[in-house]
């Protein structure tokens, strides 16, 4: 019989510690190893019973969550799931935590906390169990892929029409993976559309952060945005994104709708629209993540003539979404994360996106 996943809760709110503890203890696959109001107390308690996963708040007294996380990843790497308030300030801080090595996010509202946590209990348990299996050293730091003729990205109004579209979907571990891929791309990379499973308000901060790190432009998508070279559009949290054709141009549609595969935005929604709209002129990539969102959509892309790639198990933080796509026959190629940027640029003898 598999041992239950041991979880330690670090949150300065006594209510959060109590409600989370009661909720997690109701699942036989979870064991609550303990709880503490701040990282200093947590470190003292965890020495006696080190957990498989830590639930960590980011704003706490004595030592903030980011400082603790960096210390933890340096001295004793342990899967960490951030428990953050759903605010713009909380989003920015949480993204710093994800960049520092946290595996996933659990959002908490300021009001109605007990009802919110109880309603989201099954998903929370799934996240914690997936985090316990996460690979913390999966994201490589590689040198950028050089452009044949480096140049600044063209302004939107003057950009040429492109028939090349890259659709990329990811979830748990995806913030680090996307950073590893996008920061290696030149300013004239193909137009890219991305679904990263992330709550509302977090995607805007995520896009802004990537835009500061990348040579290409990265921004949160707005309904009607044109897909052009040198531009990466990230689906807003809480809304679906689809690719549309407008004459000779590709644009994105951003709209509300019911969750698909329990997610909004959904990778399947994006991939299916790319299959229907771009066909063989698209490249589909599915990367690290929990669950099966995107597998069916990637298969639709492959059947429509697009080249399709799944991230390999060794470099995936959570080998859920890529595994489902591979087993379904949706991926024509399986690559490590370090090869994704080269694949996007069509170098190394691989198929050209424009062919």
Automatic annotation (TrEMBL):
<feature type="modified residue" description="4-aspartylphosphate">
    <location>
        <position position="57"/>
    </location>
</feature>
<dbReference type="GO" id="GO:0006935">
    <property type="term" value="P:chemotaxis"/>
</dbReference>
<keyword id="KW-0597">Phosphoprotein</keyword>
<dbReference type="InterPro" id="IPR035909">
    <property type="entry name" value="CheB_C"/>
</dbReference>
<dbReference type="GO" id="GO:0050568">
    <property type="term" value="F:protein-glutamine glutaminase activity"/>
</dbReference>
<comment type="similarity">
    <text>Belongs to the CheB family.</text>
</comment>
<feature type="active site">
    <location>
        <position position="171"/>
    </location>
</feature>
<comment type="function">
    <text>Involved in chemotaxis. Part of a chemotaxis signal transduction system that modulates chemotaxis in response to various stimuli. Catalyzes the demethylation of specific methylglutamate residues introduced into the chemoreceptors (methyl-accepting chemotaxis proteins or MCP) by CheR. Also mediates the irreversible deamidation of specific glutamine residues to glutamic acid.</text>
</comment>
<dbReference type="GO" id="GO:0005737">
    <property type="term" value="C:cytoplasm"/>
</dbReference>
<feature type="active site">
    <location>
        <position position="293"/>
    </location>
</feature>
<dbReference type="InterPro" id="IPR011006">
    <property type="entry name" value="CheY-like_superfamily"/>
</dbReference>
<dbReference type="Pfam" id="PF01339">
    <property type="entry name" value="CheB_methylest"/>
</dbReference>
<feature type="active site">
    <location>
        <position position="197"/>
    </location>
</feature>
<dbReference type="InterPro" id="IPR000673">
    <property type="entry name" value="Sig_transdc_resp-reg_Me-estase"/>
</dbReference>
<feature type="domain" description="Response regulatory">
    <location>
        <begin position="6"/>
        <end position="123"/>
    </location>
</feature>
<dbReference type="GO" id="GO:0008984">
    <property type="term" value="F:protein-glutamate methylesterase activity"/>
</dbReference>
<keyword id="KW-0145">Chemotaxis</keyword>
<keyword id="KW-0963">Cytoplasm</keyword>
<keyword id="KW-0378">Hydrolase</keyword>
<protein>
    <recommendedName>
        <fullName>Protein-glutamate methylesterase/protein-glutamine glutaminase</fullName>
        <ecNumber>3.1.1.61</ecNumber>
        <ecNumber>3.5.1.44</ecNumber>
    </recommendedName>
</protein>
<dbReference type="GO" id="GO:0000156">
    <property type="term" value="F:phosphorelay response regulator activity"/>
</dbReference>
<dbReference type="Pfam" id="PF00072">
    <property type="entry name" value="Response_reg"/>
</dbReference>
<dbReference type="InterPro" id="IPR008248">
    <property type="entry name" value="CheB-like"/>
</dbReference>
<feature type="domain" description="CheB-type methylesterase">
    <location>
        <begin position="159"/>
        <end position="345"/>
    </location>
</feature>
<dbReference type="InterPro" id="IPR001789">
    <property type="entry name" value="Sig_transdc_resp-reg_receiver"/>
</dbReference>
